[in-house]
Amino acid sequence: YHTENICAMLNSGGGFVFIAHEGSSAADLEGYYLSISDKAKYRAFIDKCFKYIEPTVDRESYCVDFLPLVGNSLGSDQPTAKWIIKVSVKPRKSKFLYYVSYKLLIS
Question: What is the DSSP string of 36-47?
Answer without folding.
Answer: HHHHHHHHHHHH
